[in-house]
Amino acid sequence: MLTYTIRRLVLAIPTLLFISLVIFLLLELAPGDPMAQVPLTVPPEVKQQMREALGLGQPTHIRFAKWLWQFFAVEPMVWMDHTFGMTLAEGQQRVISWQTRSPVMDIVIQRMPQTLWVVAMSYVVGILIALPIGIYSAYRQYSVFDQVGTFVTMVGYSVPPFFSGVLVIVIFSVQLGWLPSIYDTTLVVVSWDTFILQLKQMVMPVMVLALQTTAQISRFMRASMLDNLRQDFVRTARAKGLSERSVVLVHVLRNSMIPVITVIALGVPQVFGGAIITEQIFKVNGLGQLLITAIQANDLPMVQTVTFMLAVLIVLFNIIADVLYGFLDPRIRYD
Q1: Which of 84, 217, 255, 277 could pair with 130 as two cysteines, CB 3.0-4.6 Å apart?
Q2: How far apart, in whole angstroms, are the C-alpha atoms of residue 326 and residue 214?
Q3: With a threshold of 0.85, does the pTM exceed it?
Q4: Is residue 194 part of a domain?
Q5: Is the per-residue pLDDT at 53 higher than 80?
Q6: What is the phi/psi pair of residue 139, to 5°?
Q7: How many domains, in total, are found in the chain?
């Protein structure tokens, strides 16, 4: 298993390099000019100097190679300097945002906690709700609980976040006045009262993101459980006198989790993608809002860095899902 994991991590390197090249070329072909927002009173020669300062006058392959060096070499050196008090990155040029003229990773690190608060919490909540619903719906197939759960999950999976987000704002903020409609990113949790305020402002964005997570995972969990409940090993386990609880939660559940693990692992980047819309609706000052702002301002270094980080999440969680297969199913071995 260790050898397989190392091999997958090594193979992920050329994959990520190819993905970064594709992202870079797509952004190169995208319309727009970062100098478009410069006032018309600025002389053309000054604009040309600004373009050269941003590196726009260099060939495409030079700028791509420079971005690779800055992202994969300089930024890790900056992290080591901050962590261990070293001076490896002294004098090195970092990835600079065209919009703010500041290092991209510094802005990403500032926005990351807000996104993780909402996205991580919503995904954990969605999984904790979806798994019991899927298990019980499969065990009590065609019961009232199963039919109601099927209807609710289908609605939750069909409703897009931009609609459900506005709907919960109208209900819980405008009509009932229970929850704040705007996420206060400046709130610092220092007491019980501020902790309650933090929970209140997280309820609606977490609810919106967790809705689709719950709907998707519960349907996969139900289908996988139904498939395994009909297998011969289940009848054998019951014939041996094992309790129904042991049969369902130990034998059936463990085998049923194998395809569900793929959905859970690959769903993490999707939740980050859904957070882009949700953060716009609830004014969460996170990575989603940062990406939208960068796209509107033609800030290519910021867009490239954030989208590449999402690609890293997809590749990483693919590897995690494959490794977890071997732990869940002893029949799977990576030799």
Answers
A1: 217
A2: 25
A3: no
A4: yes
A5: no
A6: -70, -35
A7: 1
